[in-house]
Design goal:
Layout lengths: L9 H15 L6 H13 L3 E4 L6 H10 L6 E5 L6 H5 L4 H5 L16 E5 L6 H13 L1 E4 L2 E4 L4 E6 L9 H5 L3 E4 L8 H5 L16 H11 L3 E2 L1 H16 L6 H17 L4 E2 L8 H4 L6 H11 L8 H20 L1 E3 L9 E2 L5 E2 L3 E5 L9 E2 L6 E2 L11 E2 L1 E5 L1 E2 L1 E3 L4 H38 L8 H30 L13 H6 L7
Parallel strand pairs: 1-6, 1-7, 2-3, 3-6, 8-9
Antiparallel strand pairs: 4-5, 10-19, 11-12, 11-18, 13-17, 14-15, 14-16
Length: 508
């Protein structure tokens, strides 16, 4: 599934890895949020952090600003009574004197590179429309003109999910979502003794703003594999089953995120490992995340070139065909081509009918009473004389024999079964390679959570075991067709010309 060809310079890859470590410096249990925020910024997307106050949500945003050279930072806490001036800047008095409606945006969101907006869903309608345009289109309407903004990413925070249809569009603008829990009991003592470490990368390590456009441009060239497409289909089926709506726009942006994940990790193909991001982008309610992560773990071994369900159906169909052909019979013929029957005396005959003693419904032989002329099952009359058997003309039983098949028919069947066998073998080899490379992939991949490794290994192993079961069935199928009876006197093998002529042949 994973192509190991390097698609990003080692220098940039090592810089990003170092920046992840710098952002994590002095944090406890925030690695997931650090990776989500930095990956979102590299892809030009936004992140929503849900959770109670005091869980370092604003600090995460401030550290994102420190990742970039000369990045402007904006931070604001919204309330129901917040006005546009608090977010977009005050109106210019001078412009008003000239009958122009213009804001002074210096130091406000329209000129920020990185922004943190707390209680984002308290944005009222006066703020909402401009905010949506700024987040999605990176443009701001100031006066009668629309200006581009230098915004890299917005980290938003909320203690609660949005309520009301008017906030659905704003909620959808945040591609990555994460619930930030307080530190666990296991890390509580470490929290109490935590120092005051900060995020202060070297100037050489920090990313330049112009590098983002290059990363996104090059990442767009990364190939989306059929396996990832099939994995997305697995998620889509689950979402439909759980009645979770995901917009087409969101799916398109998800592809962009996966491509950036692959590119910055040094790969030129999006693999199933880059799809680790999907559960963090698809949930509407925090409790849905666990189910989506389970879908990812179980679907990690899917391949666009191999469907276990389809192969199982195909095997079952051919096994039924083998059983039918193995047991198929036809009437035996003599050397002159005449059908042979089993006669009344048990001997072979070419006569289709013969004289048989009549029987009743229970199968008992019938006789004609010597004196009353009535039918009876008694062999002796009342005078102890033998009654005459009642004879009738009826069809003789055909003598059947197993059907013999031509070498070309058998070869066609074996070739088809062997094709299924090879397909299964190739998939097993691919899964074996995955298991051998798992440590290397997790070592090289910048973003995937190492916690997922045991579950991924277990599910790939499970898929491999199941596929090996299919392989045994395919091997048995090949041997079964090879064992079909061959026509008497037929050549044991075909010539090369004949062999090529039956390529792909399948009998009805």
């Amino acid at each position: 599934m994973q192509n190991s060809a390097v698609a990003v310079t080692p220098d940039r890859q090592s810089k990003i890895k170092q920046l992840i470590n710098e952002m994590n410096n002095g944090f406890l249990e925030r690695t997931e949020q650090v990776k989500l925020i930095l990956l979102a910024a590299l892809a030009g997307e936004h992140v929503l952090l849900l959770g109670p106050p005091g869980t370092a949500k604003s600090e995460l945003a401030k550290r994102l600003k420190d990742v970039f050279v000369e990045a402007n930072y904006f931070e604001r806490l919204l309330t129901r009574f917040s006005v546009p001036e608090e977010v977009f800047g005050p109106l210019s008095i001078q412009a008003l004197e000239d009958d122009k409606y213009k804001r002074l945006t210096s130091g406000y969101l329209p000129e920020a590179s990185v922004a943190f907006i707390d209680e984002i869903f308290k944005a009222n309608s006066a703020i909402l429309n401009s905010l949506l345009t700024l987040l999605n289109e990176r443009q701001f309407d100031n006066g009668n003109r629309r200006y581009p903004v230098p915004l890299i990413s917005v980290v938003a925070a909320s203690n609660e999910l949005p309520e009301g249809d008017e906030l659905d569009a704003l909620y959808d603008r945040f591609m990555l979502r994460s619930f930030v829990h307080p530190v666990s009991d296991e890390s509580f003592e470490s929290l109490l003794t935590l120092g005051s470490e900060t995020c202060d990368p070297d100037l050489e390590t920090r990313l330049k703003i112009e590098e983002l456009a290059e990363v996104q441009r090059l990442a767009d060239k990364v190939e989306l594999t059929s396996g990832v497409i099939e994995l997305c289909n697995a998620f889509r089926r689950y979402l439909q089953q759980e009645n979770i709506y995901v917009s087409d726009r969101r799916w398109r942006k998800l592809v962009k995120l996966m491509k950036v994940s692959a590119f910055t990790s040094g790969f030129n193909q999006v693999s199933n490992y880059d799809a680790w991001i999907l559960p963090h982008c698809l949930w509407q309610q925090p409790e849905q995340l666990e189910g989506l992560q389970q879908v990812y773990k179980e679907a990690i071994a899917v391949s666009g070139d191999f469907s276990s369900v389809q192969v199982t159906k195909l095997l079952s169909a051919w096994e039924a065909r083998l059983k039918e052909e193995s047991c198929a019979q036809r009437q035996k013929m003599n050397p002159d081509g005449e059908p042979i029957y089993k006669g009344p005396d048990g001997q072979q005959t070419t006569k289709a009918t013969g004289e048989y003693q009549k029987t009743n419904a229970k199968g008992k032989k019938l006789f004609r009473d010597k004196y009353s002329d009535e039918e009876t099952t008694r062999e002796m009359s009342s005078y102890q004389e033998k009654n005459d058997p009642i004879m009738i003309e009826k069809p003789n039983e055909p003598i059947l024999e197993l059907i013999d098949y031509s070498p070309s028919h058998i070869k066609a069947r074996v070739r088809e079964a062997a094709s299924i066998q090879n397909q299964i073998s190739d998939h097993i080899d691919m899964l074996s390679d995955e298991l051998e490379m798992i440590d290397q992939i997790f070592g090289e991949h910048l973003w995937i959570d190492p916690v997922l490794r045991p579950d991924i290994v277990a599910n790939i192993t499970k898929a491999k075991d199941h596929t090996e079961t299919l392989l045994k069935r395919a091997e048995k199928l090949v041997k079964g067709f090879e064992s079909l009876p061959v026509e008497k006197g037929a050549l044991e093998s075909l010539s090369i010309e004949e062999d090529e002529a039956i390529e792909g042949e399948l009998s009805d």
